[in-house]
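Both lines are retained for reference:
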Amino acid sequence: MSRALEAVLEAGRKIRLLILDVDGVLTDGGIILDNEGNELKSFHVRDGHGIKLLVRSGVEVAIITGRYSRVVERRAQELGVSEVHQGCIDKVAVYERIKEKRSLRDEEIAYIGDDVVDIPILKRVGLPMAVADASPDAKAFAAFVTERRGGRGAVREVTDLILKAKGLWERIINDYIKA
């Protein structure tokens, strides 16, 4: 195992909260608008299952996104994500409020982003991550870059990594084997 991966796993053991961006992370970054002004987004089912596994295992999940979309609220509700902040111009201010509200330290928080607007949070958290197709500038601030693209299983890579780092993965697999 490489030293870089060892450091990522060590940071992952401390994580109590995963914060997600939406467009380009939970989705592939595409935005579809219909003639009635509805916004459509496509979410990967395995990303969603990974989020549910994380929440069931006691790791909280939050969303901070610059855009607003009703479909994000719906998807978050389906996944058990109660902390959803949309239309955020200043993501850092929201990050600081979440951290304070939960009495967390930076090293207990992981964040996954895809673009330059995510850099201020990537610089603060204990486990900064970027999706495979993130901007090179965002990747430069990530301790871990997924192999999968945003909206195509990248979040599942992150949730699995955190669960494995915390020693929770084997129990989850065993529960499925026993079912």
